[in-house]
Write a structure and sequence with these properties.
Structural class: mainly alpha
CATH class of the largest domain: Mainly Alpha
Mean pLDDT: 85
Order of helices and strands: HHHHHHHHHHHHHH
Distance between the termini: 30 Å
CATH topology of the largest domain: Growth Hormone, Chain: A
Shape: globular
Length: 387
């Protein structure tokens, strides 16, 4: 293959990265202000979390259908449809005056989110050479991290300057830019069938052969779920000030290290990436179990970003490699199901353990579970090689 064919930063892929940052920023503009918006529309504070999480819950059930559609239909058109749906939902948020209306819109938004989130990874993979798939996927991950840094700040600016309703309008404009930009991406799909594309099997919705990777990426995501809900309380319980700096350090580390870990995957393979990833993630959990001051928390943030960032990207790239580009949609949706389950199970497990034993035992148990993933994957890979 020529050097030109091996390039990652082609015009279409660069456009996909830009659209990913813009659309992600739109999402992170809206999510932090949704509880306050719900309260302003008469919702009790106790149920704002449940309503806010509806989008993720709907997305979890919608991902298999989005993955199947991605493998059968034009991915570019599907992405444009998802952005148009998001624009409609964001406009409806801005004019909603009742809680039932917001709940209805949140469910619709979950459908759009499941479509865009699932198809985007498969769409990006179509423009990457298989030999550099890990590195390419890492850049998609960096785009997501950048959007988490831009979105909330932009949302705060718009909300303070123009009012909370305008946040939805601005987010809708960003999605409109994404819809137009995505439509302009030069893309000529070759794997679309005729009438066959309307015949579905179970394997089109969920790749059973990827169960090991669902488990592994789910285990890595459990830590995300725990920290998302309990980091602030963790800092308060241990008198650690400025605990939110964890997110800043983690984001910067992810941006700086993901390209290198992606290249390592492409050169050395999945095993040489996953084993260190789980060891590093386990050390992160032990640090969190022992931390009584901010420096150790920030060191753990670096470890978490390297461990989970390299492990998750490696799994996403490997699943596409195993199934091939023709099934990249179901590979993407299957991975996201594992991540969603980890994000859901993390807070549930955390609530149970923290109430009985505290944060130290919680993170020590998590470290042990992460280390157990290493022999589990070793046994799987050994059996696969023999087969």
């Amino acid at each position: 293959m020529s050097n030109k064919e091996e390039r990652i930063f082609t015009l279409p892929f660069c456009m996909i990265l830009i659209m990913s940052v813009i659309s992600g920023s739109a999402s992170y503009m809206v999510n932090p202000v949704l509880p306050d918006f719900l309260v302003s529309r008469g919702a009790p504070l106790e149920i704002t979390g449940i309503i806010s999480s509806l989008m993720s819950l709907v997305a979890l059930f919608g991902r298999p259908f989005a993955g199947a559609a991605s493998d059968r239909f034009n991915k570019k058109i599907l992405m444009v449809i998802s952005y148009v749906l998001s624009i409609g939902c964001l406009y409806l948020y801005s004019i909603s005056n009742t809680v039932p209306m917001i709940i209805f819109v949140r469910i619709l938004h979950g459908i759009a989110f499941s479509l865009s989130g699932t198809v985007s990874m498969a769409f990006g993979a179509d423009f990457l050479p298989l030999s550099r798939l890990g590195e390419g996927m890492s850049y998609i991950g960096i785009g997501t991290v950048v959007s988490t840094m831009i979105g909330p700040q932009l949302g705060d600016f718009v909300g303070n300057r123009f009012g909370i309703e305008q946040i939805f309008i601005w987010a809708g404009v960003l999605n409109l830019i994404c819809a137009v930009g995505t439509y302009l991406i030069p893309y000529h799909p070759t794997n679309l069938g005729g009438k066959e594309k309307f015949k579905f099997r179970f394997a089109d919705f969920f790749a059973v052969e990827l169960l090991i990777y669902v488990f592994l990426i789910g285990m890595l995501s459990v830590g995300n779920g725990i920290l998302l809900y309990y980091l602030k309380d963790y800092g308060a319980s241990r008198n650690i000030a400025n605990i939110s700096l964890y997110y800043t350090v983690s984001s910067i580390t992810t941006i700086l290290t993901k390209p290198f870990t992606g290249r390592w995957l492409d050169k050395k393979g999945i095993a040489y990436t996953l084993y260190p990833a789980f060891v590093i993630s386990a050390v992160f959990a032990v640090c969190f179990a022992q931390a009584q001051a901010l420096p150790l928390v920030l060191f753990a943030a670096v470890l978490k970003a390297i461990g989970q960032g390299s492990g998750s990207s490696a799994i996403q790239a490997e699943t596409v490699r195993e199934l091939g580009l023709k099934r990249s949609g179901v590979a993407s949706s299957t991975c996201y199901i594992g991540m969603d389950l980890g994000n859901v199970l993390g807070p549930a497990i955390g609530a149970f353990v923290i109430s009985d034993a505290g944060y130290g035992p919680l993170f020590n148990i998590y470290a042990v579970l992460l280390l157990l993933c290493i022999p589990i994957y070793w046994l799987y890979s050994r059996r696969t090689k023999k087969a």
